[in-house]
Write a structure and sequence with these properties.
The structure is a homoheptamer of 237-residue chains.
Chain A lengths: L3 H4 L16 H11 L4 E6 L2 E7 L13 E5 L2 E7 L1 H22 L5 H17 L8 E9 L2 E7 L5 E3 L2 E4 L3 H11 L6 H15 L9 E7 L6 E2 L2 H10 L1
Antiparallel strand pairs in A: 1-2, 1-8, 2-9, 3-4, 4-5, 5-6, 6-7, 9-10
Helix pairs in contact in A: 3-4, 5-6
Subcellular location (chains A, B, C, D, E, F, G): Cytoplasm
InterPro entries (chains A, B, C, D, E, F, G): Ntn_hydrolases_N, Proteasome_alpha, Proteasome_alpha-type, Proteasome_asu_arc, Proteasome_asu_N, Proteasome_sua/b
Pfam families (chains A, B, C, D, E, F, G): Proteasome, Proteasome_A_N
């Protein structure tokens, strides 16, 4: 996929541009994201949904949770390296808490995302470190409304309507492209998210292998569904 | 494009001159700028205009905003790496605010640009970092008048009358060379900017895919137009 | 096993992703774990068991203890480099003690594991260090119940029901897969752990060559069994 | 021009002497100076003149100013990297101001030059940085009289009577060698400087493409001429 | 012994794992130990013995002492680089003294050994240093009883009954394997140690070329024997 | 002159000995000294003389001064890199002044030389810097008498009777060897120095191209002669 | 002498062991010692003698002194790099003085030697520096008696009866081996030292080319002999 000759070393050190102006290490970090299990989000007019595959390699090992609450009004799903994700999620939680403490109100979600992206960017420009091998989907509700924002390993973020990252991302995005509508409601968004996740997982689409979360504009509280609640949604498909 | 033999390593470390006195890493960083979407600016006698392409890769993802206000009297458009741009824009905003606080007046625009260029230069001379892969077009009005200034990854800046950077820059510059006149007024400048952007974008020239901003000498306030306002300008073309 | 050509240097520096998004140094550190003697754990409804092989290379050298108590309510078994393990175990003990001191209660086990994994992750992202060549099985009981958690050299952790690491891990896991049941009691879990360890050791399965520990929900005290107690359990097999 | 074999790496790291005792990186930095537009100076008995080419690549871009005032009694022209020059010019201005503040009088010009050369030297001896790719011509009047001093990237400086640096330097120096006389007066020196600049520029010798400055012993004030003043001088040629 | 091809660089930097999970630099440091003169120890029920070869290369140079007292109740013998050993022995003495000062009692021997091993481990995980090329045999008596503990360059330690390190280690270990018994008394242990040392030295087994020390549970004082005392023991062989 | 094969890298990093125990970088720095213009000194019974060639490359550029006063009782001549020399001369002046301030008397000359040599040595032993490419001849009079001391780039110094460094050093030394006598007086020493300098310069031996200085035991004041004084001495040859 | 292939890089970086457990850089530093002029010492029952060759390359340059007093009761001779030696001798003098100040008595000589060896060892284990290219012979008298101790570049030291280092060391050692006796007196030791030095110098054995020093148990004062005193001793040979 990457021919050896033309790169000749440009891809081995983070602080170096290739002659075409590319940062290979950042692109390789994105490959770590693509190897992660699928995570996706759908923004509705009245809320936003996150869904991830958390299939375990063995019945004796619990699948790793890939949806985390950051603060009451915002949560995150990720694809990529678990250890890298945890470091950044801790940073996000600390930032959210200290914002609440200092300003007496929930952190604006785009501000929170920028903070995480600033850290990510720093790890692409300075020597002696590698980029973070993780991408996030932040989902939340604040004064400005409903947010679904993706970050990548280079520190870029994108405001999205419906988005998927990880191994099965393309299949999910194809479904979103065909079926997403701008006036979708949160209940439909949950079903759309589940259908997309089912499409992207080749098998094993069961409540145990899935994490599902939502936040809506009514109670503005990030909620991760229990396995039985997920089962109820699956039954509605 | 770059023959391997004559360079033989001079292009791999930022702190090294080639035998011809070139800094390849800075030149490669400029390639990252050339890969960015087109951004352009036109200076009029009574104001200055910025216009950028913000086309999104997918209808489910919002295009990334590439025009940002720095302070009331100055804004910026960029081409290149989003994460790198954000870091420098934050620096610019902090610098502008602290100047206002200390001196009680808006930061002179060339001083602001020099500050950003000093940061950029530092990243081309010290080891362990890479240059910033981003170019800016600063547009503003201060005591000295109307300014359109371009910065490049090496820390150089140029005072311009009309200028474009990014993928479609050459087509826009060709148009400017043919049609720009020194006594252009802000209203004409807006239309010239839009025509140049249309020329540089191969397709997809619609209000949704465009950002447009201006500042004039009358209210000295940087204004980013809404999509419907952009649509109105497009209708006038 | 690793063909030289396609890697060409991506596996030599910790801070570098390979083109496929892999961190070879972390994977090689896991090889150090696989070369360690087998350690395993079994979670029961009312407690959790750890068992390790501590066979010595010579009758004149005592086998190295590979089960350590961290705090009264939690212990750990490891496979991999002894020196690396000791450094992290010291960190875990200090963290547990300072938590007790500050909050007046035992450290939640998952929090403790996260702390150790944060240290591990840091050693995979920053230059000038190598990853820790050790994997742990943490076993403990806290307010949330019974825990068996595995950590790997990259800073990832997995919540497990039954798990083995080191040289003979696969044989033990195969046995667990066939025979582990969710409603297993601590007494049965001890016997299952011993059977799995016997399976994974090719010979030398004697009380002298084994370490065995458990903690249950009744007295919530991590207990490492004496050689004669281990002998008693072996007789029951 | 530089045969690859005999150098074999001696030219790639700043802190290394070649077997012949040369510092290639410093020599390459001088190549960056040679690629810059011509700057020149002429010392008269009663003052000193600086002249530079500031031709722009495009009519839509203003030429970059390459003559800067440092303090009332001293100014500078440069050839080479714009960003590098600006960093050192800022240092020179700060040093001149702080000298005025501390000692209540203008900084002696040779002291100022030494300060800049000390910074330049430091960047040739320590690892992790590259030399400054810029040469200066300092022109000023102080208690000791009239000064024209050139600095190079290695931190050496030369006291000169007439001197040129950059792309067209040799042609200008040839003219100076033929026509410079020690008893030249400032008015003649201006004309000599313009003739030398004309000689070194292949075409485009117009007032718009030229910067001209002087300082004399009568008012001891560094003065950069306006375009119309330059035009007047050109008419006298 | 080490084929060049498969290693290809994994053995040159301390912070790097080989694909098999090995740390070659630590293994090479152990080679420095193997090149050192033989040092050995024998644990008895009522004490422990250390013996080392201190043969000198020339009659005009005194053999280097390789048994050192750390504190009254503990001493050490080493094989490997003299300079490295001295640095760690100084650390051990300081640690022992400060423990006595703070807690008012002799430092527990295993705690002391862990401290030294922590330093050793650190030098195997961080860049810019090499591992210590020395192995120790600590011998001492504390509240927990009699101790003979070996440390290696990687920071691992082993509790031993009888152990030898350095050039002639294998011959000594073979003898120990044949003749060591668990109920050995200190007087017999001295003779066994001398026999093992004689076996491991090919010639030159004289009192002048030997260092011998013991500590027993009766007076708990580490004693290095004089040459004439060693001669007396040799006569008993 | 240096065959490529046997060195194979030992000459590229300052902190490395070659297999023969040589420090190539220090030797290469000495090549920079050899490329410098000739500087020489002659010690008489009642004083000491320094003389250097300061020929300029062009009549429009003044030759660089290579004799500097350090303090009233001591001066220095150098050959090699101008920028490097200036840094060390500044250090010498500061050291001499602070000694005068603290102890109330002139700095002993050998102490001053040692200080400069300590700095030079440090730059040959630590990574990330290169050695200073300059040699000095210190000349002075203190309580212990008359001193002529040479320093080299490695930090070694030699007490000399008559000595030359730089391009023409060998010719001057040959003359000294033939004609220097231990009972030479300062007036004769000046003439001997001039004759040696004439011998070492192939042409251009005129008062303008020469610097000459002396210090004697009568007034103990370092004096640099003016061009007309030099001319007077030349007439006496 | 060193075949290129088997080393393949192990000899280029100080912090690296070769597969055989050797530190090549330390060994190469010892080569620098072997290239130094001969220095030797002889221990008598009532004192100790140092003698060195200080032949100069030219009659116009004084030979460099290689015997230095550290404190009244101890002196040192060295072979190897002059600059490196001076740095360590300064450290030794400071250490001796501060010991006198703090404890009110002369520094024990072995303690002083250990201090110097600790510095030497540190420069063999940490990156970014090279080892010291110098060996010392310390000679002194303290409470414990008469001492002659050699240190090498790796930080090892040896207690000696008679010892030589540098270019002619082997010839001197051969003489010592044949003629040294344990009951030698200081007067005989001086003559033995001179004979050994004569043997090791191929020609030029004159009082001017020799340094000689002694310390005895009667006045415990390190004394460097004058040239005429050396001549007297030579006459006695």
């Amino acid at each position: 996929m990457f021919p050896a000759a033309p790169m000749a070393g440009y891809d081995r050190a983070i602080t170096i541009f290739s002659p075409e102006g590319r940062l290979y290490q950042v692109e390789y970090a994105y490959e770590a994201v693509k190897r992660g299990m699928t995570a996706l989000g759908v923004k509705a007019v009245d809320g936003v949904v996150l869904a991830v595959e958390k299939r375990s390699a063995s019945p004796l090992v619990e699948g790793t949770e890939k949806i985390k609450m950051i603060d009451q009004h915002v949560g995150v799903a990720f694809a990529g390296l678990f250890g890298d994700a945890r470091v950044l999620i801790d940073q996000a939680r600390i930032y959210a808490q200290s914002h609440r403490l200092v300003y007496g109100e929930p952190v604006p979600i785009e501000l929170l995302v920028k903070r995480i992206c600033d850290i990510k960017q720093m790890y692409t420009q300075h020597g002696g470190v590698r980029p973070f091998g993780v991408a996030f989907l932040f989902a939340g509700v604040d004064r400005k409304g409903v947010h679904l924002i993706q970050t990548d390993p280079g520190g870029t973020y994108l405001r999205c309507k419906a988005r998927a990252i990880g191994t099965g991302a393309q299949k999910a995005i194809d479904l979103f492209t065909r079926e997403y509508t701008d006036n979708i409601k949160i209940d439909q968004a949950i079903l759309l998210a589940l259908r997309a996740l089912k499409e992207s997982m080749e098998d094993g689409f069961t409540a145990e292998n899935i994490e599902l979360a939502k936040i809506d504009v009514y109670d503005r509280t990030f909620k991760i569904f229990s396995t039985s609640e997920v089962q109820d949604f699956i039954s509605k498909l």
